[in-house]
Amino acid sequence: MCTLEKRGQLFLLKLTGDGEHRLNPTLLDSITSAITQIRSDPSSSQSVLITTSHGKFFSNGYDLALADSDPSLRVVMDSKLRSLVADLISLPMPTIAAVTGHASAAGFVLAMSHDYVLMRRDRGFLYMSELDIELVIPPWFAAMIRMKIGSPAARRDVMLTAEKVTAERGLEMGIVDSSYGSAAETVEGAVRLGEELVRRGVDGHVYGGMREALLKQVLHTIGSNESVSNRMRNSGSKL
Amino acid sequence: MCTLEKRGDLFLLTLTGDDEHRFHPDTISSVLSLLEQAKSQSTRGSVLITTAHGKFFSNGFDLAWAQAAGSQTGAVNRMHQMVESFKPVIAALIDLPMPTIAALNGHAAASGLMFALSHDYVFMRNDRGVLYMSEVDLGLPLPDYFAAMFAAKIGTSIAKRELLLSGKKIKGEEAVALGIVDSAAHDSVEGVVEATVSLGESLAAKKWNGEVYASIRKSLYPGLCTMLSLTAKIAASP
Fold it and tell me: Which family does the record assign (chain B) (predicted)?
């Protein structure tokens, strides 16, 4: 499902296996568990999180086949992803998504929930697929896109043409911070950036609080589906 | 005044005649009626292209008609009437269950520019035609839903200032640079129309579900939708 490794002050969260890393309840719980573990680490406020994946996909979004077989799971998956994203937004450390494969719909949102998005340019794309598969886009996804993509035309291209955004286009749109020649180089780039951020020595709690303030509108739209434990964690970092 | 034509998947809405295509209660009502017609006839893969004949796309509200009321109060009332009755036209475009493209044959000013910007894609000529928010020069306040459209569609503070506060007549190349329009690559009306038809056909080929398309469009502009009293359909997410 996912593994968590610590390398010096860097936490490496990897979505494992060669599948699509669909955000089903099990994987979402697994990732959330890893984030909880990171938070409880005594040196967490001087650390950096890097999220990456094995194989062709970063994440291909929600598990739609599962939702078709049991519609009640739609709400469960949405609720768990909201909690996870709220968790990432309040995390007391810089976060980097090393996108080494396709990131679609909820998977694209997961990547965007990180402070930095690094991506391979030889393969793979970011894709808000909903228009192509006849699904509406949840308001909180749209809020994240409005926050992370500055140009109205780029937002339209992402949401209203379901553009398959390559790293090059992602750089133009300002969704992607830097691009690399391969999956391995992308992860290396993330590690280098992570180490630089650690060296700057920011106080993670202050950082997390600032990010929450910056992403206030997104948190508001995510709304009251936050888990109780998130609310308790967040109360300390609000000034 | 205005016509609606169907060419394959494409609906062509044309403001006809060689005049300024000013928005007057009758034109507003005609345009609204044609948009409702397009909506009722829409299928998967439908696309709307809006254009006009002559030198003007549209030069805004019919101020002469407002003045013809004969009194200050009368003029203000007529202006108010046009502003209020135009809102459903803008709402109809934002709610239209198909991609929309404005092919600017010429000048677009005030509510004429507002009409253009209400489309998903805006193409203008390189050689002729300007975009002009005349309100600041005429001493007219900006209706709230106009301001909401600019907030939704214009990305930078500089572009907003140039368009709304400077009284500038913005030509094609600058409009593209400011991110106000998608293209000003063509030196003739035929060029612009051809380019929009080409875009229209490529969008039509996607065979998107129009209701889903409209819902996603509305979720791009929540503030504007509130102003226009449009609610996005909230459906299950995954």
Answer: Belongs to the enoyl-CoA hydratase/isomerase family.
